[in-house]
């Protein structure tokens, strides 16, 4: 009876410990700015410092003069497009490429309360944009390819002048001429990162056949493509500039995304690597005391079971002795008779 009671108590304890583990696992899904924000910022402090360094480098690349490539009179046939204003203004670029994705990241944070997802998404898109900007601006300064509207930048009055070697002698504004040598390439990395982020969050590649999810993923890429086409229509870039820049932006965005998140087709592609690492560490920490309690309970139950077995053995021996003694008495009585 006592053995059955001890086993029942042990089962109840194990059930309670399993329930507690499940409750802890459910509570681990909430990592807020208040609970993990400071620790996360300290862990990635060097990443933010490198990010600020990239900002400084990009500012320098935009200040220095690009390479002034030789531009002859026979080359002007492809460089006489009109000087127009941008269809998509420059101030809108950080809005749709950085601020809009960050707003979407914030909406997912308000839904899941995962500061790791919010932090890594913001850090990832900033790295995507800045790394791409440094690469493209460095190539622009090194190549110095004239824009399609270079003629009117160089000769605002329409009167072209060339030196003895046939190179242009520009008499336009220096800042306008300098920008006229920065055609190649033109990239869009922010919206590419957003497309990867959304594909992981809504599980586009979960093999369930919900093709409608692709519309959400393709939308940022479509916007980036239309903005790139507008640059060609405004005669600010050649189509090769937009094509090459788009490849650079997508490659950099993919590399930066995979630094923080699993591939979108992965089973855990909906969350960052850091989230699952913290989840495993927390579960291991929570299960350690339970393992100790289980061993202690087994150690307590073992003596109780041994005592019960000893009692059963003694009772069995008592019955055997009583049976043997009764037989001896009968033998003695029969002998006397």
From TrEMBL:
It is a multi-pass membrane protein. This is Phosphatidic acid phosphatase type 2/haloperoxidase domain-containing protein. SUPFAM superfamilies: Acid phosphatase/Vanadium-dependent haloperoxidase (SSF48317). Keywords: Hydrolase, Membrane, Transmembrane, Transmembrane helix. Gene3D superfamilies: Phosphatidic acid phosphatase type 2/haloperoxidase (1.20.144.10). InterPro entries: PAP-like, PAP2/HPO, PAP2/HPO_sf. The keyword Cytoplasm does not apply. Belongs to the PA-phosphatase related phosphoesterase family. Its main location: membrane. It is found in: Membrane. GO terms for biological process: phospholipid dephosphorylation; phospholipid metabolic process. The chain crosses the membrane at residues 48-68, 88-109, 121-139, 211-230, 242-260. GO terms for molecular function: phosphatidate phosphatase activity. One of its GO terms (cellular component) is membrane. PANTHER family: LIPID PHOSPHATE PHOSPHATASE (PTHR10165), LIPID PHOSPHATE PHOSPHATASE 3, CHLOROPLASTIC-RELATED (PTHR10165:SF203). Residues 120-257 form the Phosphatidic acid phosphatase type 2/haloperoxidase domain. It comes from the Eukaryota. The keyword Hydrolase applies.
């Amino acid at each position: 009876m006592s053995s059955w009671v001890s086993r029942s108590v042990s089962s109840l304890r194990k059930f309670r410990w399993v329930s507690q583990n499940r409750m802890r696992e459910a509570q681990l899904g909430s990592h807020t700015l208040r609970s993990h924000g400071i620790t996360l910022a300290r862990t990635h402090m060097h990443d933010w410092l490198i990010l600020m360094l990239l900002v400084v480098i990009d500012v320098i690349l935009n200040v220095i003069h690009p390479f002034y490539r030789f531009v002859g009179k026979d080359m002007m046939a492809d460089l006489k497009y009109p000087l127009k204003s941008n269809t998509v203004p420059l101030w809108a670029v950080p809005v749709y490429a950085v601020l809009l994705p960050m707003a979407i990241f914030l909406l997912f944070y308000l839904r899941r309360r995962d500061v790791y997802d919010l932090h890594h998404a913001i850090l990832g898109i900033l790295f995507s944009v800045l790394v791409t900007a440094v690469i493209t601006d460095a190539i622009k300064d090194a190549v110095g390819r004239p824009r399609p509207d270079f003629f009117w930048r160089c000769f605002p009055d329409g009167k072209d002048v060339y030196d003895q070697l046939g190179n242009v002698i520009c008499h336009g504004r220096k800042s306008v001429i300098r920008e006229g040598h920065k055609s190649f390439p033109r990239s869009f990395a922010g919206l590419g990162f957003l497309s990867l982020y959304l594909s992981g969050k809504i599980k586009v590649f979960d093999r369930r056949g919900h093709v409608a999810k692709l519309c959400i993923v393709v939308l940022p890429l479509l916007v980036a493509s239309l903005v790139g086409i507008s640059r060609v229509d405004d005669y600010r870039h050649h189509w090769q500039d937009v094509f090459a820049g788009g490849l650079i932006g997508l490659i950099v965005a993919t590399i930066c995304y995979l630094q923080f998140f699993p591939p979108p087709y992965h089973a855990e592609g909906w969350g960052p690597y850091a989230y699952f690492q913290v989840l495993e560490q927390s579960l291991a920490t929570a299960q350690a005391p339970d393992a100790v309690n289980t061993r202690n309970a087994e150690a307590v139950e073992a003596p109780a079971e041994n005592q019960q077995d000893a009692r059963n053995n003694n009772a069995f021996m008592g019955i055997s002795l009583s049976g043997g003694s009764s037989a001896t008495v009968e033998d003695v009585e029969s002998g006397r008779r």
